[in-house]
């Protein structure tokens, strides 16, 4: 099996069976973002305790890239400090710009091919932008 096929399967798995989809009852922060270019929308809810993301859930509608990215991101940031999750977002951004990256949560690398389709980068980064906006809200309280 080629790497592209594997990556496509990982993306479709997260799209068809998204992890952490739904609403949270105990969120510390809730952020809603839209991508008007293609109609993707996300509501990201995170519970943050002692500077760590203890849970992350999302809901919304979007393309396979947007939903898969949100699913992977919510899995990847659980248990991370805000600093670690922000660093992961920076790495993800670099990957979207074409710089190869390695992640502890390896499934994120399945989205590396998105950078070949500039219009889809906003789809892949929507959840990450919601996370950063949520962290900014928490830090400014």
From TrEMBL:
CDD domains, alphabetized: IscU_like
Residues annotated as domain NIF system FeS cluster assembly NifU N-terminal: 7-123
Pfam family, one: NifU_N
Highest taxon of the lineage: Bacteria
NCBIfam families per the UniProt record, alphabetical: SUF_scaf_2
Protein name per the record: Fe-S cluster assembly sulfur transfer protein SufU
Organism: Marinicrinis sediminis
